[in-house]
């Protein structure tokens, strides 16, 4: 393709992996990280951009309850600014959204399942998606929306579930792994599989929304059992019995749309992904 790729949030967990892969494939990549200015309001003076991967934003759900305004600024206003940049320069966009379905009415969850805000973070992503659809409809901006369910991999924020479990599993001074609530089941996708899907929206011209998951649901006890199966120090799982507001207890992504339209399929199962993180380091 002609032109450069702009990656917003290039210094984040997913952004770093995406930039490395794009450059390894020979793309010319320009980056926008927080140090380059507040993306909610700064002028985007990049030239020669043909496609934007918009990853910049805030992601930790508990923080969104404590400071919702910062999430609306970081996730909604930034998306409007990026889309206006795409309109001006004629670039296409891949927007990285999130799980936006609330308590599912049916499992597995397809992309046409009703969206439901169940915390300020998911609400900010739903609003950002609405702006994407407006620009696609009224300004003919080609937009693909990718909805990752639960991403994990090397370099993730240590506050997230998988690094929290692995850190405790590797600790030599404890015999337990402690979590707030061991009931939720989640659909986990390894970061390299997500990167493959993001790039497929570029190379295959995807439009509309795509779920990003494994198509499987896994519990915290199952993750701990998997870690115990290959780590030398076996740990006992303890739950404090706490629950987050509006907690969703089970999700499974229906990924057939991405499979059929983008010829994409996840390659790394959860146990293999856990091995990779332990080998490469958190």
CATH class of the domain at 4-154 and 189-214: Alpha Beta
What spatial order of strands do you see in the largest sheet? 2-1-3-4-5-10
Biggest sheet architecture: 6 strands, parallel
Low-pLDDT ranges: none
SSE sequence, one letter per element: EHEEHHEHEEHEEEHEEHEHH
Helical element count?
Answer: 9
Kindly report the name of the CATH homologous superfamily of the domain at 4-154 and 189-214. Answer: NAD(P)-binding Rossmann-like Domain
Choose one word for the global shape. Answer: globular
- Taking all Cα atoms into account, the compactness measure Rg is 19 Å
The secondary structure category is alpha/beta
CATH architect. name of the domain at 4-154 and 189-214: 3-Layer(aba) Sandwich
User: What proportion of the residues is helical, as a percent range?
Assistant: 25-40%
Average residue-wise pLDDT:
96
Terminal-residue CA separation: 34 Å
Strand segment tally: 12
CATH fold assignment of the domain at 4-154 and 189-214: Rossmann fold
Proportion in β-strands = 15-25%
What does this structure look like?
The chain is an alpha/beta fold. It has a domain of 177 residues: 3-Layer(aba) Sandwich (Rossmann fold). It is built from 9 helices and 12 strands. The protein has a 6-stranded parallel β-sheet, sandwiched between helices. Strands 6-9 form a two-stranded parallel sheet. Helix 1 packs across helix 6, helix 3 runs parallel beside helix 4 and helix 7 packs across helix 9. The protein is globular. 41% of the residues are buried.
Provide tags for this entry.
282 residues; alpha/beta; Rossmann fold; 9 helices; 12 strands
């Amino acid at each position: 393709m002609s032109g450069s790729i702009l990656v917003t949030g290039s210094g984040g967990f997913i952004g770093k992996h995406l930039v490395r892969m794009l450059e390894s494939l020979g793309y010319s990549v320009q980056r926008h990280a927080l140090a380059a200015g507040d993306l909610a309001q700064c002028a985007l003076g990049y030239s020669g951009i043909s496609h934007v991967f918009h990853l910049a934003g805030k992601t930790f759900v508990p923080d969104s309850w404590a400071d919702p305004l910062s999430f609306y600024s970081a996730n909604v206003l930034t998306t409007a600014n990026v889309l206006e940049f795409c309109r001006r320069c004629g670039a296409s966009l891949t927007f990285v959204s999130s799980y936006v379905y609330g308590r599912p009415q049916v499992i597995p969850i397809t992309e046409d399942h009703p969206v439901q805000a169940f915390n300020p973070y998911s609400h900010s992503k739903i609003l950002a998606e609405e702006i994407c659809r407006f620009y696609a409809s009224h300004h003919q901006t080609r937009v693909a929306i990718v909805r990752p369910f639960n991403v994990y991999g090397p370099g993730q924020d240590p506050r997230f579930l998988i690094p929290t479990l692995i850190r405790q599993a590797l600790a030599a001074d404890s015999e337990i792994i402690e979590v707030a609530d061991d009931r939720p089941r989640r659909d986990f996708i390894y970061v390299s599989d997500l990167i493959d899907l993001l790039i497929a929206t570029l190379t295959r011209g995807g439009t509309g929304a795509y779920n990003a998951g494994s198509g499987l649901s896994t519990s915290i006890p199952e993750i701990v059992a998997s870690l115990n199966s290959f780590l030398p120090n076996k740990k006992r799982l303890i739950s404090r019995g706490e629950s987050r507001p509006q907690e969703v207890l089970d999700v499974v992504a229906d990924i057939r749309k991405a499979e059929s339209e983008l010829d994409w399929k996840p390659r790394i199962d959860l146990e293999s992904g856990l091995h990779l993180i332990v080998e490469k380091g958190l």
